[in-house]
Design brief:
152 residues, mainly alpha, 6 helices, 0% strand, elongated
């Protein structure tokens, strides 16, 4: 394979992995389902009291909106990049523009996630911080779809 093809495959793999991490983060932070037997919500798992829960929701809602908006924009750029890669005529400048847009949005998502975790840290007591850190560290490192398709 050419070095540019390998770089592209690696880039796609990184993008898919970041998408999985983002999805896992949103899943962890999503409010609990009302279904009986459902996995408890993060605030329930952490044992937040009423005051903490109020602060948690106040911090969580804007974060989830911003994170979801960035995820939708990343997906739009990813789809456009894929269409551009497989178009009749390859336009490397257009591909690079989409890659750069994705990287910028992913950087923003990462910043949002860090800021949210710092805000949550201020809400939690020490034992709750330990539980949240353990939960985040226990998230599985899933292979990307691209890795699965290529037999990892």
């Amino acid at each position: 394979m050419k070095p540019s093809t390998l770089r592209f495959a690696l880039m796609c793999s990184v993008l898919v992995n970041l998408g999985v991490v983002a999805a896992a983060g949103v899943h962890v932070l999503r409010p609990a389902s009302t279904n009986a037997g459902a996995t408890p919500s993060l605030p329930v798992h952490l044992g937040l009291d009423a005051r903490q829960l109020e602060r948690w929701h106040a911090a969580e809602q804007p974060f989830l909106r911003q994170f979801s908006d960035a995820a939708a924009r990343i997906e739009a750029h990813r789809a456009e990049m894929i269409r551009t890669i497989f178009a009749g005529n390859v336009d490397r400048n257009a591909i690079e523009a989409e890659r750069l847009a994705i990287a910028t949005l992913q950087h923003e998502q990462q910043r949002l996630m860090i800021e949210q975790l710092l805000a949550e840290r201020e809400i939690l007591d020490e034992a709750q911080r330990v539980r949240l850190a353990q939960l985040l560290l226990a998230q599985p490192d899933k292979p990307s779809l691209l890795e699965d398709l290529h037999g990892r």
